[in-house]
Amino acid sequence: MNRSLEPITGHEELLISTIAEEMILSNESEILLLGNMTSDTMSPQLQLQPYYGDQLEVYRNFYSSIHGYISIMVCLFGITANCMNIIVLTRKNMMSPINVILTGLAVADMMVMISYVPFSFHNYLRTGLEEKEKFTFGWAWFTLFHAHFTVVNHTIATWLTVTVAIWRFMAVCYPAPTMRHRGLPQARIAIACTYIVCSIFCIPNYITFTVSSYENNTIYKVNFSELAIRHGGLLASINFWMFSVISKLVPCVALTGLSFSLLKVLYEANLRRQRLKVGSDSDKSHDRTTKMLLAVLFLFLLTQFPSGMLALLSGALGNDFFNNVYLNFGETMDILSLINSAVNFIIYCSMSRQFRETFTFLFFARFSKDKWAAIPPSEPTQTLGTACV
């Protein structure tokens, strides 16, 4: 795709998209200028932007005015919620391979939101800054760090979500009662490999962008590196396809297939129990665990699939679609990603009895009328596959 390699001058468009969009960091007037620089010389009919760009721009301007407040509230809730996820999931009675992977997922999600808080405050709430104050040398380098950091951590979270789906599918299809604790080393290895491989996978991002100075070294912004613009912007195009398309759509397709496979297994198990008129507490717990993880997977698909499709269409339809549709939904994709990173705690509490019991004991036992009788939830005696219920 031949995308224009002009300086990156807008605000951050897509938290978990290609790093190019993550480092678009200027004010709205510059974005509008790029899209309407010839409007004075064009007829009213020709001024209309393709793909309803004018209407989408109105939506974008409205949402951008409130995005900072919403994103910071979501991030503060999500940071707190993921801290509680980590505390609860690492208790001895909660220890299982899938819970270990969910802990690694919570860490990655929390890192994304920690980085987003100062970014959102500076770019969306500090509206009275002049350009020289807003685009300082130090802030430009923080922006570059923030973009790399969020891309790496979100990539890690994405593939840990895929790992959870695969692990649960194997546990459901090939149950092994002895694997509840014996699978812990393999789960930890899977987490370590995901963190390492994703960090290496993002190397093209690291070399595609750099900090450039403008207006006699008084303004600093993130821009494409010299290496990225060589050979007609080959590296920039590769980077876009890798991170805006492949790293989004491939996990989404894999999770869709795994989710439907898990649903099929649940349906067949329920039919079998109804036919035999049997069903132990262990079976019910097993099903609740699978349903909880399916909720996590479906939430991921709901928030990530749209941005992957927009990226794919941008690659297929070119700059007009990218500028008029993709960029105008930038903050919307941001908030969907942040919500996905923040609400797993709610899913765990609403669908996992063991998580609720452990959470209540850890955080509310002191308020119990009979606080001396409060004891940690005991180790489950039934086979739970490899997850918490």
From TrEMBL:
GO molecular function, a single term: G protein-coupled peptide receptor activity
Protein name in UniProt: Sex peptide receptor
GO CC aspect terms: plasma membrane
Keywords noted in UniProt: Membrane, Receptor, Transmembrane, Transmembrane helix
CDD domains associated with the record: 7tmA_FMRFamide_R-like (cd14978)
Cellular location(s): Membrane
PROSITE patterns noted in UniProt: G_PROTEIN_RECEP_F1_2 (PS50262)
Domain annotation G-protein coupled receptors family 1 profile: ranges: 81-348
Gene name tied to this protein: SPR
Domain of life, source organism: Eukaryota
Provenance organism: Caerostris darwini
Pfam families, alphabetized: 7TM_GPCR_Srw
InterPro entries assigned to the protein according to its UniProt record, in alphabetical order: 7TM_GPCR_serpentine_rcpt_Srw (IPR019427), GPCR_Dmsr-1 (IPR053219), GPCR_Rhodpsn (IPR000276), GPCR_Rhodpsn_7TM (IPR017452)
Annotated TM spans: 66-88, 100-119, 139-167, 187-207, 240-267, 292-313, 333-351
Predominant subcellular localization, coarse grouping: membrane
Family note: Belongs to the G-protein coupled receptor 1 family.
